Amino acid sequence: QSVLTQPPSVSAAAGQKVTISCSGSRSNIGKNYVSWYQQVPGTAPKLLIYEDNKRPSGIPDRFSGSRSGTSATLGISGLHTGDEADYYCATWDGSLTAGVFGGGTKVTVL
Amino acid sequence: QVQLVESGGGLVKPGGSLRLSCAASGFTFSDYYMTWIRQAPGKGLEWISYISDSGSTIYYSDSLKGRFTMSRDNSNNSLYLQIKNLRVDDTAVYYCARDGRGWPYHWFDSWGQGTLVTVSS
């Protein structure tokens, strides 16, 4: 049972947009920045979004992030088959004094 | 370029011990906080621990505290994770990841390729 809650899967047609939610609590998302990671099976995760909505160099602006209250959202627009992967949200939990991840969301491009 | 290379994984019997290593290059290792994260087969990511740049501050996941010990050697640009009393449910790929410079950012911009630990009799 993950501290952060994500939907197990989302899907959309190529070219469309998906959003992935990440729900937490006051002690984690409510007080700390959220980051997002993309993981293609068999490879290490890759940082997509940090500090809620910032993109590292090389990450296209099709990827966007936001945070409000105790939830965060990752958006992926202009979907293509290369976006098929697992996506994880993460943050720090001040009550647990530990990092926490969401359970992951599998994105499928129809 | 930033590179993190884990090693030390393998097949271990329940109750055994293991020390994982992470060799860092391409950046000033002693400036950065570092983190260990694991992923059981077919499961999600699990945060294990982080260590400050100097090594003086370490935080662990409550569920793993006591069996896991994180350390670093800044003179050798290396990070370590000692695991004792291994259990079957410790079977996972273990990743080291770079955290913040000077303070914990709690996001990880570089990851190693991971090292697989299999605990089985």
Structure report:
The complex is a heterodimer of chains A (110) and B (121). Chain A has 110 residues and is mainly β. Chain A is built from no helices and 9 strands. In chain A, the strands form 2 sheets. In chain A, strands 1, 3, 4, 7, 8 and 9 form a 6-stranded mixed β-sheet that branches. Chain B is mainly β and 121 residues long. In chain B, strands 2, 4, 5, 6, 9, 10 and 11 form a 7-stranded mixed β-sheet that branches. In chain B, strands 1-3-8-7 form a 4-stranded antiparallel β-sheet, with no helix packed on it. In chain B, a hairpin with a 4-residue loop joins β7 (68-73) and β8. Classes of the chains: A mainly beta (110), B mainly beta (121). The A-B interface holds A 2, 32-33, 35, 37, 39, 44-47, 50-51, 56, 86, 88, 90-92, 96-104 and B 35, 37, 44-47, 50, 59-62, 95, 104-109, 111-114.
Q: Helix proportion of residues of chain A, in percent?
A: under 10%
Overall geometry of chain B comes to globular
The number of strands of chain A is 9
Task: Give the integer mean of the pLDDT values of chain A.
Answer: 97
Radius of gyration of chain B: 13 Å
Q: How many helices of chain A does DSSP assign? A: 0
Would you tell me the overall average pLDDT of chain B?
97
SSE string of chain A, helices as H and strands as E: EEEEEEEEE
Largest sheet of chain B: 7 strands, mixed
CA distance, first residue to last residue of chain A: 29 Å
Order of helices and strands of chain B: EEEEEEEEEEE
By DSSP, the count of extended strands of chain B is 11
Percentage beta strand of chain A: 35-45%
Please state the CA-atom Rg of chain A, rounded to the nearest Å. 13 Å
The chain pair forming the largest interface, with residue counts per chain, is:
A-B, 27 and 22 residues
Q: Which residue ranges of chain A are poorly predicted, with pLDDT under 50 across at least 5 consecutive positions?
A: none
